[in-house]
């Protein structure tokens, strides 16, 4: 009887969705390479759609002369922009290394471009969180 | 490479990509994902038209 109650208590205290290695690795890989967190879990269609969406949004933003923020802008809004941009993972680092997104805004569409780049990063954060949920087993 | 999109085409592209990500990440089954993605896209584009008409009325 006592053993049964101990077992029940152990079962109740055990995490419902145990944290596995893949649950840690998948969101990190998904953040660095958009969609890769899904691809490595064999969600190929979802992974490719996410990759195309985030990468296309980022590149369209750059094509519209959107600004890519650096880490030390000095202004709170620029810091928020940096956090959004950082969501694109490797794309952000590539853009910083290559010096993309540093041109002065020449027309109104550059403001849209900046928004595209930031939102691409934010959407990739959501995609990485989704990869984490799939790895945990919370989502099919 | 630099290109300029119109307000409308930029908004539709934004709606398309955001809806794809929302659909995939916010629902579980494939059918639900497609439905939710289309729903988000319709709301985005509908919002563009609604905002356009509001601006037209404000300008008059």
* Biggest sheet character of chain B: none
Strand content of chain A: under 5%
State the secondary-structure class of chain B.
Answer: mainly alpha
User: Sheet bearing the most strands of chain A, described?
Assistant: none
Strand content of chain B: under 5%
Which whole number gives the mean pLDDT of chain B? 95
Please give the share of residues in helix of chain B.
Answer: over 70%
Shape of chain B: flat
Please identify the oligomeric state. heterodimer
Question: What is the number of E strands of chain A?
Answer: 0
Q: Residue ranges of chain B: pLDDT <50 for 5 or more in a row?
A: none
| Total count of helical runs of at least 4 residues of chain A | 7
Largest interface: A-B, 26 and 19 residues
Supply the key terms.
heterodimer, A: 140 residues, mainly alpha, elongated, B: 60 residues, 2 helices, 0% strand, flat
Notes on the structure:
The complex is a heterodimer of chains A (140) and B (60). Chain A is built from seven helices and no strands. In chain A, helix 4 (44-63) packs antiparallel against helix 7 (109-136) and helix 5 crosses helix 7 (109-136). The model of chain A has no long low-confidence stretch (mean pLDDT 91). Helix content of chain A is 69%, strand content 0%. Chain A is elongated and about 70 Å long. Chain A is mostly helical and 140 residues long. Chain B has 60 residues and is mainly alpha-helical. Chain B has two helices and no strands. In chain B, helix 1 (7-26) runs antiparallel to helix 2. In chain B, 22% of the residues are buried. The A-B interface holds A 46, 49-50, 52-54, 56-57, 60, 63-65, 107, 109, 112, 115-116, 119-120, 123, 126-127, 129-130, 139-140 and B 1-5, 7, 10, 13-14, 16-18, 20-22, 24-25, 28-29.
